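Protein modeling request. Please complete all fields; requests missing the sequence field cannot be processed.
Requester role: graduate student
Desired output: 3D structure, token encoding
Chains: 1
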Amino acid sequence: MSLARSIFAARSVLLTLSRASSTAVSSPTPRSKIAVNELVAAASKNKSSGAAPSPTGSILSLVESQTPKAAMRRDTATASASSVKTARKKAEPVLALIRGLNVTDALTQLRFSPRIVARTLHDVVKAAVANAENNFGMRRERLIVSGAWTGRATPLKRVLYANKGRAGRKSRYRTHLFVEVKHVPFSEGELRFGRNARPHTSEQRELHRVISARLAAPTTTVPVPGVVAALETQ
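Delivered output (234 residues):
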């Protein structure tokens, strides 16, 4: 019974909002918006106090479900390619080559790799980077290839012709390719970003010079404006 009331309340609120948006209300705060704000505030209060669920709880979940993807807190993005014309044992060495690298070095490795599957994998990594930038607002220079794996696809069955009028069956294997990129936040004092990688941004290079100089000669100071003062205050 409470579920039916929740659905009825949500439908009524959505109907009120649609009517208010279609009739161009002149007042800056229409009554429907005030009612929705009051319902959401009451639902959040009940949720924080541990009270019994009310019909407004479903409205709060409905409002939270309309949050855009860019506002979601997520640090990984994935991309895949289905039924690639290669075997898993041929794709695994290429995947192991780019695991742990930042996306710039990974794309460079795949671009100059002699393996045929590297062309498809290059496109998959670019798609994962595009998903991270466009859907979740990540920075390209802070992305690393955190995961790369294969999946078994349905093989194609073909005829294997033999002598003396005989015939057999052979399989042409297909593989699914999956790539996951992860956004790594900048940490002050890092010496490298990704596996066997050098810093790319000017901020990273400046910190790299300061920290390398301090590790080589701890008693001396390097006059780098801004960075040394920030490090000494910590």
